[in-house]
């Protein structure tokens, strides 16, 4: 018998005084997704990025803040290899402004479809890239920074509203999704080391936290908090100043969120704070689902 789940149904046929036995075989797909704001793909390449990909060997890697277009990159960054020399395919959404923003998706399996958000306000800055696979849609997203004094807060909130509506549409279409990326929002006081001191700062503004409340009350789940409710001291970004990372004075602003209907498929959600090379660390998700 195969090593995936299977069931046997015996159906009585009264006319023939017999049972017809049918075996129905089901299978599940295990998938490991990593997401990382690399703060410049060319910069992180010099810090062991390709070796890290080979060592970690994720099924899918979403990256944010690439700060480059693919034509600016070495071939090794376009088709890196995982363990065993298996090459990845890569897909890119770059900003019109050079050296700014941008997202990408590396995958071992060719997706059925690749798309940007479809809103020029955000596509021009390379904010979203979506890859559709059997049973799952994976989105790499780089939420805008609202900046000092909330200078870009209206733009940020417009983006948040657009991504919320986009994900609602996916659910209406009966598509499960993972929204990976740098949300640039610490949701609750336990998601940053010094909440009181940062109440007026970008990434922890009342409007941003209120949107996260709306997001999580709309049927979408922060997978890390699902597995680690109430835990403190878990962060994904640290300032380069004041030795913040060594002191673990950070913010948790990088997420894997899923629609609640897909939550049973999530087997693990974790942060990877020991991985350096950026001011962010990668975040990890493990799935087991029937495609």
Descriptive report:
The longest helix has 20 residues, at about 155-170. The protein is built from seven helices and 16 strands. With about 290 residues, the protein is an alpha+beta fold. It is about 20% helix and about 30% strand. The protein starts with 5 loop residues before the first strand and ends with a strand. It has one domain (about 30-290): Endonuclease/exonuclease/phosphatase (Deoxyribonuclease I, Chain A, 4-Layer Sandwich).
Give the topology.
Blueprint: E1 6-13, E2 18-25, E3 29-37, H1 41-45, H2 49-56, E4 60-64, H3 75-78, E5 89-93, E6 103-107, E7 113-115, H4 120-123, E8 128-133, E9 136-142, H5 153-172, E10 177-182, H6 206-216, E11 220-222, H7 223-227, E12 237-238, E13 250-251, E14 254-259, E15 266-271, E16 283-289
Parallel strand pairs: 3-4, 9-10
Antiparallel strand pairs: 1-2, 3-16, 4-6, 5-6, 7-8, 8-9, 10-14, 11-14, 12-13, 15-16
């Amino acid at each position: 018998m195969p090593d995936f789940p299977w069931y046997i149904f015996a159906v009585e046929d009264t006319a023939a005084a017999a049972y017809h036995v049918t075996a129905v075989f089901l299978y599940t797909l295990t998938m490991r997704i990593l997401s990382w704001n690399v703060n410049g793909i060319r910069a992180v390449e010099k810090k062991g990025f390709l070796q890290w990909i080979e060592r970690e060997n994720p099924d899918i890697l979403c990256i944010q803040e690439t700060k480059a277009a693919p034509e600016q990159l070495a071939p090794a960054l376009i088709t890196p290899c995982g363990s065993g020399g298996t090459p990845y395919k890569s897909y890119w959404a770059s900003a019109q402004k050079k050296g700014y923003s941008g997202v990408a998706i590396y995958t071992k399996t060719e997706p059925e479809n690749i798309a940007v958000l479809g809103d020029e306000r955000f596509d021009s800055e390379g904010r979203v890239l979506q890859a559709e696979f059997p049973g799952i849609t994976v989105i790499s997203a780089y939420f805008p920074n609202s900046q000092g004094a909330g200078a870009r807060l209206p733009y940020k909130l417009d983006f948040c509203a657009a991504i919320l509506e986009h994900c609602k549409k996916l659910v209406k279409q009966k598509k499960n999704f993972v929204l990976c990326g740098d949300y640039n929002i610490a949701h609750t006081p336990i998601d940053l080391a010094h909440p009181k001191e940062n109440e007026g700062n970008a990434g922890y503004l009342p409007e941003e936290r209120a949107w996260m409340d709306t997001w999580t009350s709309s049927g979408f789940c922060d997978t890390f908090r699902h597995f680690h409710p109430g835990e403190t001291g878990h962060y994904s970004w640290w300032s380069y100043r004041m030795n913040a990372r060594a002191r673990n004075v950070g913010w948790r602003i990088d997420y894997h969120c899923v629609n609640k209907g897909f939550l049973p498929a999530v087997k693990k959600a974790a942060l990877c704070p020991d991985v350096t090379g950026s001011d962010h660390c990668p975040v990890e998700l493990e799935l087991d689902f029937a495609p």
